[in-house]
Design a protein that fits this description.
492 residues, alpha+beta, Glutamine Phosphoribosylpyrophosphate, subunit 1, domain 1, Rossmann fold, 2 domains, 7-stranded antiparallel β-sheet, 6-stranded antiparallel β-sheet, binds iron/sulfur cluster
Length: 492
């Protein structure tokens, strides 16, 4: 029996999990703000709703926030000229519904007794609601509904003196996943949470030092990759170079495995490995685990391409670009209005009929969330004349919500949370459906299998094994990190 039918609801969205933020910081360059804008542009895939940059020259801090893409908002002299100084931090934001107000755009800035301080964060604090209530009871006035502001108030109420001491004191009280870039007079600070769930890398551009969510943001400014900021490490970039502190060292790493599967750009390096290569490895594992006789392997663009290449190569089946993606679909068209609802997925994708007609097709995608887009793409490929459509997914079934900074539907909306693989294949309309196994995923990452006692990654959205306590959720604050903050937004 089918327990969930997500297709009752029409959805023209792209049905992907979304990374909620990208961060960038730089110390020691006269063009700090312009380089930060370029870095954020390279990280645009991590958040498209809004962006912000704070630059500093001595004690003077200059800030610009805007909704929309970096290139549209940080390209004119009128915006860039006032962002003076040799140090800057920036942030790209992907916000959930209803949370895209200007007051929630990061970096946040506050005047402390020690001077100005700016902070931006990628991740999600899993006890933010509890801390926020406590802070409000103590008289703190919040100006935003973002969990990041909790860190600012914890710093403001700290009894320590220096910016770094106060920041460490604040972060000792929070739980969750965070990669933070922050800035005080004369220093830029970077921190990863004790398990290093979200990425943060360190680079060098001449005498300047750089922090970024991914290495692709170093490439765009011509900076050299130095190393990853380690889980639980805090680095201070200042006139003396880079100082490393270990205030939160857990001795473990639980990097988000979905960064390798989908979030990070394929031209980035993560954990010392090419993201593109790892995606090809997953595709090859998938081909070994779930081979099917077929005539052509077709990726669901763009994110399914590397895994499809790996699958085709391993299976010895020709690879073709059988679906063309329209890159110019704007937000307006994604709104499901009655006038365009019937156009469905064709707004974004079209079948390349000449390479599909009469063929047995293996379609490769990176994940199934609600399944809405998968169903429409399978229908589209069949309508283009495919004899058979076999769907192969380069991640295990997404059965659980993410609470660590990724926009996820609540668990009941995840197709795999309440349907077997056979049920999902029937709902989607595929002749067969297979996901890479969790051990196959680990093999593609260079591990013999998933070590259940000590997994190398956060893989909670596939296993339900959450490596960081979910204090807000367990206290009844709602399901999904994004959803719990949405509740805050509604209440505010
Ligand atoms: Fe990444 Fe999934 Fe863990 Fe979230 S739950 S951090 S998406 S692996």
């Amino acid at each position: 029996m089918l327990t969930t039918n997500p297709f009752d609801r029409d959805d023209l969205g792209d049905d992907k999990l979304h990374e909620e933020c990208g961060v960038f910081g730089l110390y020691g360059h006269a063009d700090a703000a312009a380089l930060t804008a370029l870095g954020l542009h390279a990280l645009q895939h991590r958040g498209q709703e809004a962006a912000g940059i704070v630059a500093a020259e001595g004690t003077q801090f200059h800030l610009h926030h805007a909704q929309g893409h970096v290139g549209d908002n940080f390209s004119t002299p009128a915006v860039m000229a006032p962002l003076r100084g040799n140090q800057a931090i920036g942030h790209n934001r992907y916000s959930t519904a209803g949370g895209a107000g200007l007051r929630n755009i990061q970096p946040f800035f506050a005047d402390f007794s020690f001077g100005g301080f700016a902070l931006a964060h990628n991740g999600n604090l899993t006890n933010a609601r509890i801390l926020r209530r406590q802070l409000v009871q103590r008289g703190c006035l919040f100006r935003s509904t973002s969990d990041t502001e909790v860190i600012i108030h914890l710093m403001a109420t700290s009894l320590f003196g220096t910016p770094v001491e106060r920041l460490v004191d604040a972060l000792r009280q929070v739980e969750g996943a965070y990669s933070v870039v922050a800035m005080a007079e004369g220093q830029v600070i970077g921190i990863r949470d004790p398990l290093g769930v979200r990425p943060l890398v360190l680079g060098r551009l001449g005498d300047a030092h750089v922090l970024a969510s991914e290495t692709c943001a170093l490439d765009i400014i011509g900076a050299d990759f130095v190393r990853e900021v380690e889980p639980g490490e805090l680095v201070v970039l200042d006139g003396r170079g880079v100082t490393s502190l270990r205030p939160f060292n857990s001795g473990q790493s639980r990097f988000c495995v979905f960064e390798h599967i989908y979030f990070s750009r394929p031209d980035s390096m993560a954990e010392g490995k090419s993201v593109y290569e790892r995606r090809k490895n997953i595709g090859a594992e998938l081909a070994r685990e779930s081979h099917v006789e077929a005539d052509v392997v077709i990726p669901v663009p763009d994110s399914g391409v590397p895994a499809a290449l790996g699958y085709a190569s391993e299976a010895g089946i020709p690879f073709e670009i059988g679906i063309i993606r329209n890159h110019y679909v704007g937000r307006t068209f994604i709104e499901p209005t009655d006038q365009i609802r019937h156009l469905g997925v064709k707004l974004k994708h079209n079948a390349n009929r000449a390479f599909i007609e009469g063929k047995r097709v293996v379609l490769v995608d990176d994940s199934i969330v609600r399944g809405t887009t998968s169903k429409k793409i399978v229908e589209m490929v069949r309508a283009a004349g495919a004899k058979e459509v076999h769907l192969r997914i380069s991640s295990p079934p997404t059965t659980h919500s993410c609470f660590y900074g990724v926009d996820t539907p609540e668990r009941s909306k995840l197709l795999a949370s309440s349907n077997s693989v056979e049920q999902m294949a029937a709902l989607i309309g595929a002749d067969s459906l297979a996901f890479v196994s969790i051990d196959g995923l680990y093999r593609a990452m260079g591990h013999p299998a998933r070590d259940t006692a000590k997994p190398a990654f956060c893989d909670a959205c596939f296993t339900g094994d959450y490596p960081i306590r979910l204090a807000d959720h367990d206290s009844g604050a709602g399901e999904g990190g994004s959803v719990s903050m949405l509740a805050d937004r509604k209440a505010s």
